Amino acid sequence: MQKYDSGSESGWAPVIVIALAGIALVAAASKFPEVLSTTGVSPNLPFKGNDDNALPLHPFAELLKLVVAALIGIVVTDVHRRYHRDKPLTRSLLQAQVLLCVAGAMVMVIIGNSVARAFGVAGAAGIVRFRTPVEDPKDTTILFLLVGLGMACGVGLLEVAGLGTLFLCLVIVILDRFGETKARSMILSLVAVGREFPSDHVSRILNSSVDFYEARELVQGSEATAKYTVTLAPSTPLSWLTKELMAEGTAGLKSVSWSDSPKKTS
Description:
Elements: E1 3-4, H1 13-31, H2 33-36, H3 59-82, H4 91-111, H5 115-127, H6 137-154, H7 158-175, E2 184-192, H8 199-209, E3 212-219, E4 225-232, H9 238-246, E5 253-260
Antiparallel strand pairs: 1-5, 2-4, 2-5, 3-4
């Protein structure tokens, strides 16, 4: 059962700041090309390789590609998270999307123009086994597209990567308006401050905010705890609902947490 961070939903300001940071970084690099053309220590190393398989000689230029790939991954991941209405994305999947974009860039940086290195990377990738299933085909497709954007960064096509990022974000927003949305079924866990559980307050908030709810258990000890099965619309923000339940600490609740409802087995 996976738990979700109820405070993960924020405004658009971080996305805009990250996008502007990427643009500023590329603009600054174009103003100071001598920094990107600086050679590293590779030519002086005994394992630098031959002319057909030479190591990269411009480490700052390659680092710029990786940084831009990371920024692109963060922007696309944040837009995807905001317009993923079926159920919240897990923290590990959000991080994997950013890292896969960086991995795509790094693979292309390593390969360069070497066919031998390309076969070596392909062989190494074949050893890795990903045993974590991705249930939503949309999530799988976005992972694939992020790898492509990262590869564009790796070969230096930053304009293509930037325009591709903008186009992908627009497509995600547009596709969110198509198709039927499925209500989310989740487990709401509440811990009271003391032995008395504020049932009236919780019922009042849930009655006005969710489609259906049902109390599953209530345990009264030094701190009363309760669990509810809640069915709510995909567009209902968990952070807002959590804030309403907590009521800035005046409702008698100590903590609020959300998790997926267990799947029914036949």
